[in-house]
Design a protein that fits this description.
Elements (H helix, E strand, L loop, with lengths): L13 H11 L9 H8 L5 H14 L2 H11 L5 H9 L4 H21 L5 H18 L13 E6 L7 H12 L3 E4 L6 H10 L4 E5 L3 H16 L8 E4 L5 H11 L4 E3 L3 H15 L19 H12 L31 H4 L5 H8 L8 H9 L1 H13 L5 E3 L13 E3 L1
Parallel strand pairs: 1-2, 1-3, 3-4, 4-5
Antiparallel strand pairs: 6-7
Helix pairs in contact: 1-2, 4-5, 4-6, 4-7, 6-7, 7-8, 8-12
Length: 412
């Protein structure tokens, strides 16, 4: 299926989604066939008609709702005209904070619930970026410190930055100043950038398992420099777990450290951290998540061990009086004087030749046939070559012009 033909589930109405799910899960009933209903619902539907219908639906909405819907649907066509109309009645900053950011919050909710996939999130982010770029010249310059600043970096030794760049887009579109340092950044570069840009938060990312160790070392470096209290840290990446960050790393870091599963959780954490730092009423950080350890597991193990020796314990009916055979000897012994004919037939000639390094590739088909036919006399020769340190055995490719099968081995 072509990617351009895919639409997020949030763009379909409830009846269409329910009918599609009924078809997938075969929820037929008497007088109800989901396939027939689905065909009726989408009768005559084409990509062109769907786009036209969506355009008509947008045009019918009030201006603020239409702008919000354009962000959610990732629809650029007509965006600048709507923004120009909105500027006639409202300041540019109000449009961003009260309308466009509301649209991005809906995108985050849809993404978190699985109703919108990553490509559509990026599409919405691009529309948001276009809208902000159009409104920026109309915004009044202010000396206020803004929503906050975060320094983002992929840690030393790691080159993965797709997730970090998505965090950059989401935070930037929500009014934060993002300093994106890129990939393979040592802790010294991260801290220098944090001091230079007066960052409120540091964000570190990495995909490799080794990156989790680097992040731990970076936090320890902040402790040693007495900078942990100044910089809350958000960590993200596929190799991390919430328990590792919010339990293990939180124990060693002298400041605040939190785990962000995705870009939108990073946005929520950023809002909370900035709110707490600036004393916003009601602002607080989410509670640390504890490891999921089954309650009483250790107690149950101890009780089970104690019950095994108690009088009331009932054993299974497995016999315990079976005689145990006595081993003829323990350890190793060297046996000498075994005749060649007693073990020659047990030798694996192929493994013997390969292990000795005499042949680095399989013998040709003609040689294999010759080897099989000459087995009676081959085994003693093989064993003799194995027991003698001065003799080597190797394969010889039979001549293509030979009239009779040649021996597969030559002894030197």
């Amino acid at each position: 299926m072509h990617a351009s033909k895919i639409l997020p589930i949030a763009r379909f109405d409830e009846e269409q989604v329910t009918t599609a799910l009924d078809l997938i899960y075969d929820r037929r009933a008497e007088g109800y066939d989901p396939l027939q209903k689905l065909m009726a619902l989408f009768e005559g539907a084409t990509t062109k008609s769907l786009k036209a219908g969506r355009a008509e639906e947008l045009a019918a909405l009030p201006l603020d709702e239409r702008l919000k819907r354009r962000i959610i649907d990732g629809e650029k066509n007509g965006l600048e005209a709507d923004l120009a109309s909105a500027l006639e009645t409202r300041p540019a900053l109000d449009i961003v904070n009260e309308t466009l950011l509301d649209g991005m919050k809906v995108v985050g909710e849809l993404f978190g619930s699985g109703q919108m996939q990553l490509p559509f999130v990026l599409q919405s982010a691009e529309v948001m970026k276009t809208a902000v770029a159009y409104l920026e010249p109309h915004m009044e310059k202010s000396d206020a410190e803004g929503k906050g600043t975060i320094v983002l970096a992929t840690v030393r030794g790691d080159v993965h930055d797709i997730g970090k760049n998505l965090v950059d887009i989401i935070l930037s579109n929500n009014g934060y100043n993002v300093v994106n340092l890129g990939i393979k950044q040592p802790v010294s570069a991260i801290l220098e950038a944090a001091e230079e840009h007066r960052a409120d938060v540091i964000g570190m990312s990495g995909l490799l398992v080794k990156s989790t160790v680097i992040m731990k070392e970076n936090l320890q470096e902040l402790n040693q420099r007495k900078m942990a209290a100044d910089y809350p840290v958000i960590l993200g990446g596929a190799a991390l777990t919430r328990a590792y960050v919010e339990q293990d790393l939180h124990e060693i870091y002298e400041g605040e450290v939190r785990y962000a599963r995705d870009a939108f959780e990073g946005l929520r954490l950023m809002d909370a951290l900035i709110g707490v730092k600036r004393g916003v009423p009601g602002a607080k950080l989410p509670e640390l998540k504890q490891r999921r350890v089954r309650a009483g597991a250790a107690v149950e193990v101890e009780e089970a061990a104690g019950a095994a020796g108690s009088e009331g314990h009932v054993r299974s009916d497995v016999a315990v009086d079976n005689p145990i055979p006595k081993a003829p000897f323990r350890g190793t012994r060297v046996i000498k004087g075994i005749q060649l004919k007693e073990y020659a037939s047990w030798l694996d000639e192929g493994a013997l030749f390969r292990a000795s390094g005499a042949s680095s590739r399989p013998a040709p088909a003609t040689a294999r046939r010759t080897r099989t036919s000459s087995r009676p006399r081959a085994a003693p020769a093989c064993a003799a070559s194995w027991t003698s340190s001065r003799r080597t055995t190797s394969w010889r490719r039979p001549s293509s012009t030979a009239t009779s099968p040649a021996s597969p081995r030559t002894t030197t």
